[in-house]
Amino acid sequence: MTYIAKPKVHHPSLQKNAIGLTRRDYEGAMSTLCAGCGHDSVTGALIHAFWELDLEPHRVAKLSGIGCSSKTPTYFLKNAHGFNSVHGRMPSIATGANAANQDLTYIGISGDGDSLSIGLGQLCHIIRRNVNMLYVLENNGVYGLTKGQFSASADRGSLAKRGEANPFEAIDGAMLALTLGATFVARSFSGDKEQLVPILKAGLKHKGFAFVDVISPCVTFNDHDGSTKSYAHTREHLHEVDDVDFVPLRKEISLPADAGSTPEVRLHDGSVIRFRRIDGNYDPTDKDRAYSYLRERAKSGEVVTGLLYVSPDSLDLHDNNKTVKKPLTEVPYEELVPGAATLAKLQKRYR
User: Fold this and answer.
1) pTM, two decimal places
2) How far apart are CA 129 and CA 317, in angstroms?
3) Phi, psi (5° rounding) for residue 53?
4) Is 230 exposed, middle or buried (0-12, 13-18, 19+ CB in 10 A)?
5) Does residue 161 belong to any structural domain of this protein?
6) C-alpha span between 160 and 246 (Å, rounded)
7) Residues of the chain falling short of pLDDT 70
8) Could you tell me the CATH number of the domain that includes residue 35?
9) What burial class does residue 138 get, using C-beta atoms within 10 Å of its C-beta: 0-12 exposed, 13-18 middle, 19+ buried?
């Protein structure tokens, strides 16, 4: 991926937060995603959330897997630590890093393909262990990098742009997280910054695993084998001087401030998603009610957004394992390696 740096010149009147940084200080490289991609709106919301929380970028660790969504960490917090893992394996990398150093703020960015297909097993265990991090799933229902095949989150009966219907039931990330015991579960829409930013801030401050499912529309049309208008077919039959793809420009999808509690969002292909914002009487600490409420609204064709569930007494990975408070890099060598006699004594406990 080509790294395109942004200009370093900042306007002197830019507003600063409590630690003297502007929003520009929380940005990363220029995005190479398609114009109008919902993932870029998520990036903007993350930049805003980190800035408002006055978090020091160098005290943050960004992790991702493979996919359009996993390019997102490149576009925010250029001065943070970062690791781009292999497909679907980000949760185990995040778990290891968090176990070694709990003093950093951890954020994982993934997609519906990276998390709900090849990485499903890893996602289940990072939820089970309640690793202290914010996990953002940018959910567009397709494999964007590989030209729009249905992902595991695509609703049954939904149509691809080439016309066929998806025959399989969808995996609902929020329902999965609830079922597996996540201590913070939320869902939002990439075009609803007013709602998304506070959710991200809450997830970053939550002690434990904070799962945020963000509906993030893909603006790219499908490309598939057998089409005479596909990139592959065209390249096989024409002599090109360069290998260049073209993606048509789309306007970013956003939600107006006066959209109400059940707004309808029309996507670029003409399909409509109906959202329902949680009302003031909803109790996000009642897990059973959260589960049944999601099921009820799904049957009505609605996507519930807002803080779905938060555990009031969450114990994270370090609480459960009674680990040392210091990062392992700060623990003296003689404590990290206590010797053969101590190791033999420890092993007897497991025999």
Assistant:
1) 0.77
2) 6
3) -85, -5
4) middle
5) yes
6) 20
7) 1-3, 161, 221-279
8) 3.40.50.970
9) buried
